[in-house]
Specification:
Layout lengths: L4 H17 L2 H4 L2 H4 L3 E2 L3 H11 L5 E4 L16 H6 L4 E4 L2 H6 L4 H13 L3 E6 L11 H19 L8 E5 L13 H12 L2 H4 L6 E6 L7 H4 L5 E3 L7 H13 L3
Parallel strand pairs: 1-2, 2-3, 3-4, 4-5, 5-6, 6-7
Bound molecules: 1,3-dihydroxyacetonephosphate.
The site of 1,3-dihydroxyacetonephosphate has 13 residues, from loops.
């Protein structure tokens, strides 16, 4: 809810201009090496799908209901999202959990619904803890254990051979002035990736991205442990978004 409808339209238009009209694009086939998605609000989603048609950019939704149809006034059907060209659905964002009573169980039910409708669940996970400056091994283990409860719940709801994106977003790093410390992000993500829940999945089907005050300059410091970024405020400027996509595309991993 940062953008008006007009600003969403302008953001996508400017982004397409940067990605596809920039002379650098000729020598940099960005979308060969990076999957790019934008996740607008539900109202503007179909319009954004039309804007990016044939450009290879995926459009996602910020939430959906766990049922495809029925007496759920005000909710958004995953079947309708798929019908209008939505490719992925963000679930369990920290704000949905805090303000709208989202739980691991409801996020898992929605993840199953998203897969049932041939879309990709982008499940937000992250620990609440920010009560200690220390970031030693016990704190990393505690953070990863908290995250893994969320991860196991979501992954148990979807087949092992379907694509899933896990967005690791420490709750305390969302809306902050800077991302979580590099070593913290890498250590927690390594533990998630090494978990039984992730290792039981088909190879290459689980991607882990980082979100929480992410922006240009971050990816090369957290890769190769992390597969990508989930950008918020620091990508509200299309130029910053484009710059970050280029950094990911040019990374040697
Ligand atoms: O929550 C986020 C993305 O969903 C992160 O937002 P910020 O990058 O603005 O902290």
């Amino acid at each position: 809810m940062y953008f008006s409808a007009a600003r969403t339209e302008a953001f996508v238009r400017e982004l397409l201009g940067l990605m596809f009209a920039d002379p650098a694009h000729e020598s940099l086939p960005l979308l060969d090496s990076v999957d790019v998605f934008v996740i607008p609000d539900h109202v503007t989603l179909a319009g954004v799908v039309a804007q990016v048609a044939h450009h290879g950019i995926m459009v996602g939704a910020q939430d959906c209901h766990s049922e495809d149809a029925g007496a759920f006034t005000g909710a958004v059907s995953p079947a309708v999202l798929a019908e209008v060209g939505c490719r992925l659905v963000e679930l369990g964002h920290a704000e949905r959990r805090r303000l709208f009573a989202e739980t691991d169980a409801s996020a898992a039910a929605k993840a199953a619904a998203v897969v049932r409708n041939a879309m990709v669940p982008l499940v937000c996970v992250g620990e609440e803890r920010d009560d200690d400056e220390d970031d030693d091994e016990p704190h990393i283990v505690a953070a990863a254990d908290e995250v893994l409860v969320q991860v196991r719940s979501a992954l148990a709801a979807v087949p092992a051979d379907t694509d899933v994106v896990l967005a690791y977003e420490p709750v305390w790093a969302i809306g902050a002035s800077a991302p979580a410390p590099i070593d913290h992000v890498r250590a927690v993500v390594r533990r998630v990736r090494a978990s039984d829940a992730v290792r039981a999945r088909a190879p290459g089907r689980t991607r882990i991205v980082y979100g929480g005050s992410a922006g240009p300059g971050l990816f090369t410091r957290i890769a190769p442990d992390v597969d990508g970024l989930f950008l918020g405020r620091f990508a509200h400027d299309p130029a910053q978004f484009f710059r970050t996509v280029c950094e990911v595309a040019q990374a040697p991993w």
